[in-house]
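FAQ: What does a ligand-bound record look like?

Like this one, built around nickel (II) ion:
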Amino acid sequence: MKIIISKTKDFVKERLMNEKSGHDYWHTMRVYNNAIDIAKEEQKENKLDMMAVELGSLLHDIADHKFGYDDEDRKEIIGKFLTKLDVDSQTIDNVIHIANNISFKNKDKKNTINTLEGKIVQDADRLDAIGAIGIARTFTFGGFYKRDMYNPTDEDDNEHTIAHFYDKLLLLKDRMNTKTGKQKALKRHEYMNEFLDQFYDEWEGKR
Ligand code: ADP
Ligand code: NI
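The answer part, i.e. the structure of the complex:
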């Protein structure tokens, strides 16, 4: 298992090291650590395939639709890579299902993740969008696209980075799949609320 995991980390590093839209190698590693942390807790109550959790989290952003790849491409790229490493076919199917269904595309879209391993990886990915890391990633994204960090007079209210908290980040805690994921999300959610309170007060010179 160790060799498979380290080869997968190398594969991801090579493919995502220079990615600048918020899905770089370090994002993958944080999701990997979150996923293992959640899985260890969930494993006390449910049987699960830890290998699928580890590989699924490491490969969840490989050949993303943002870069023009589709479901078939991911199936092919991930399937080929894991088959070479002699991973069993059930685990491979589980990992491909994760890569193809993890994305939170819009707030009305139905969740199509249907394995416990996938639910864990999806929670782990969402956790990386909230809390201190989530705040940092959001402002990094905003800066990359040259957006204002905040504009209280913005009529459409969605052109500045603070708006993204209300469009997406503050909704995530209610979309968690697992008990452990939800617990972690609640702490990160509170931290974002504190950040926003402080931010608005400082904006007005109140603190
Ligand atoms: P995912 O692929 O996980 O759905 P996204 O591509 O939507 O994630 O987002 C990647 C990172 O960029 C996240 O941390 C997210 O909060 C941030 N981000 C996405 N859209 C915006 C936006 N409009 N303003 C600021 N940050 C954003
Ligand atoms: Ni991700």
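Follow-up question: can I read anything off the structure? Yes, for example: The first helix runs from residue 2 to 16.
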